[in-house]
Amino acid sequence: MRVKQLAAPVEVEPARAGEDATDCVACSTPDDAYIWVSERWRVRAMDRPTGLPMVLILECRSHLDLGDLPNLLAAELGVMTVRLERAIRSLDGVARVHVNRWGDGSAHLHLWFLARPQGRLQLRGTFLTLWDDILPVIPEQQWRENLALVAAWLAEFGGKAIAEPPHIEWESPSTITFASDGENPEEAARPEQQPPEAPRPDAPQPDRPHDQSVTIAGESGAADTPHSQTATHP
Fold first, then answer.
1. Taking the model in full, what pTM does it have?
2. Which of 58, 91, 107, 141 is at a distance of 20 to 30 A from 163, taking alpha carbons?
3. Which long-range contacts (CB under 8 A, 24 or more apart) does 144-152 make?
């Protein structure tokens, strides 16, 4: 292995992305693309899960760089940094939260928050961002749950949580029985009942005042006639 040779310095550095506020991506991005927003700050995530439990970016609404912040925003930046670090560290499986600001890519102020997994000692230090591209991607449902938890944590102190937990996918184990033509739907929905047991010959017969056909047939003697199925009252 050989150390990479340094290139010669350039006389004029190239402009960063978003030097002009009219071309700034952060300024033109709507609030619904973030997980939490407030009057002066917004927090966004990556467009997909990565190898770390959480990677978030804190942005100022105003088109300012770090050294351009007025005293109010400078003081709030310290509060927001501590608050977001605590929110990410409250997630299960997070040991440390790395806070980074490089400022070479975009002119709009943004700070990176990267969560180091619990027990992963190889990931300690400045190479955590490189490990994020190597580690297996965490499940998307877990990633969305973590985003919703951080957003809710921040919303406890103000602002609005945009990220929501994933919806539960479930299927009902029950089935619906549809009635055939001419069948009462309420009768079809009732559970099937077992036929009653035939009474023993020596058992007393219950009173059945509602069964007029049986009572009338017995009184008229029609029940003794083999061809007579029902009897009518004279």
1. 0.69
2. 107
3. 146/53, 146/54, 146/91, 147/35, 147/45, 147/54, 148/35, 149/87, 149/90, 149/91, 150/35, 150/36, 150/43, 150/54, 150/56, 150/84, 150/87, 150/88, 150/91, 151/35, 151/36, 151/43
